[in-house]
Amino acid sequence: MIKFEHVGLRYGIGPEVLSDITFTLEQGSFHFLCGPSGAGKSSLMTLLYLGRKCSRGQIHMMGKDTGKLKRDELAELRQKIGVVFQDFRLLPHLSAFDNAALPLRISGVSEKKIKNHVEELLDWVGLGDCMKRLPATLSGGQQQRIAVARAVIANPRLLLADEPTGNLDDETSMKLMGLFEQLNKMGTTILIATHSTQILDRLPHRRLILNQGHLDIFDPNAQSTEPPKMPEFLHA
User: What pLDDT score was predicted for residue 212?
Assistant: First the structure.
């Protein structure tokens, strides 16, 4: 699914924020991205969702060398990636429903299916009574759940999430992680950046650990808990 080979990243003429990053994420794998603040996690996520090109090295994603792709090819590849940004990036003039529906509308899904799928998913994440509300009228936790719904609604091949439980209570956080677990079991490759020790303790998947721009991989080699059931349409 993803292969980094001796990747480096710098901004302008400054020092490298990522240095000699080499790793492989297999199709259908589940990894956490960990490390202290300033370690380079957000920079690595930017490379993974194709928001920036690396300064050196090679990145292969879904069998393609991203450094050689044209703009339209990059856009096509991005449609296969779901992203939950730490700052949500919801469109302020759109309702919760319309924000979550964006990936389906871009893909040309019928409005009937969009209505059914979005309503089911927003209800599942506890926002069934907030569908018509604008982001500014919602709490940070509610906005975060909309961002997650938007990221998973189109059943992406790769899901990237930057601190997706940062504004959620423990119960909602674990319910959300259950959704990610189920998506992973259906074949979605998942990488989640998190500081949550609760999540890391209960779901001990492999960890990519960044420190001062360098990467190590740690495998706790333990069993995860059974996740809750997810919306039926994501099984399609």
Answer: 87
Look up tokens 């991005």; give the residue.
78
Under the banding of pLDDT at 50, 70 and 90, the label for residue 28 is: very high
pTM value? Answer: 0.83
Distance of CA 71 to the CA centre of its chain: 22
> Which secondary structure element, helix H or strand E, spans residue 112, and what is its range?
helix 111-124
Residue 19 lies in a domain: yes
Question: Which value, in Å, is the radius of gyration of the alpha carbons in the chain?
Answer: 18
Q: Which residues lie below 8 Å from residue 175, measured CB to CB, with a gap of 6+?
A: 125, 228
Tokens of 169: 């209570």
Q: Is residue 49 part of a domain?
A: yes
Report whether 159 contacts 151 (CB < 8 A).
yes
- Domain hosting residue 74, numbered range: 2-89+156-235
Give the Cα-Cα-Cα angle 55, 56, 57 (nearest 5 degrees). 140
Say if CB 72 and CB 27 are below 8 A apart: no
For residue 199, give the CATH number of its domain.
Answer: 3.40.50.300
